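#structure-requests
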Amino acid sequence: MKELHDINLSVIIPVLNEEKNIGNLYTEIIAVLQSNSIESYEIIFVNDGSSDLSLPVIKGLSVSDNKVKYIDLSRNFGHQIAITAGLEVCSGKRIVFMDADFQDPPAVLGELYNKMNEGYDVVYAKRESRKGDSAFKKLTARFFYRILSILTRSRIPVDTGDFRIISRRVANLLKKMPEQQKFLRGQIAWIGLKQTSVAYHRDKRLDGVSGYSFKKMWRFAVDGITSFSDFPLKFATYMGFVFSLVSFFIMLWALYQRIVAKEYVQGWASLIISVLFIGGIQLISLGIIGEYISRIGNNVRNRPLYVINETNIEPNKDDVPVSEKE
């Protein structure tokens, strides 16, 4: 059995229906590693419930190259969980997260690695442009990252994804954060330590379609905000006070109209509007509170983050994945 963390670099790649991209991605990563004289490495593909031939392609690479590892999850657990699965079993002193769709250019991997040599614990890739994304996606992403930066106490870099390199020290700290709703870029920002960025241009997908539907993007945004900010709860409280005050003045005005001015109409429309409006605010507030309670419930149940169907990675005795601990 190999010694724990005797590999210089681990590259973790979550995969969801990327059979046409995997071979080219592997070839380009190997070229980048060789050009940067990185000889001690492992490439870990995490198959996140692909329905195409992604897994057979990965297995084929692992047969021809023993530095290629794979984890086949029992179903689709999501991008963040797939990265976490690789993080928990990787052996590298440095760890890179990148996607399999070529939107994270393999050439940038070398820049991230070399930048870390300057003494950083985290080097993240900062997008200067986004090719192939719709105007709607660009606008919503820009809006989300800036709102998140305002709402959270942790300084989460804007215009960045999960494409980055982290030190073993950061990886070990991440493994001590077993919450169910993972938001890795927020967790890494929360850790702090010495962090910097490398600018790059995000390419369009080489092949296939994005696995991030609007529903998944919305869920991801909610997870990011509720994981690192209690502002929505405070906002619900503030709105409660504001509308209670407004309702009080409406009540005084209604009494004045009824008793003094003698001007009133049975079934007063404004009363109905007020009730519906305030009721809507109450439902929104309950929904916000419910999101936080749901997160508490998920973490209290303490279910495994994921289930591994099969893998060619031999677990280290002193480094058992969180999902397999008893």
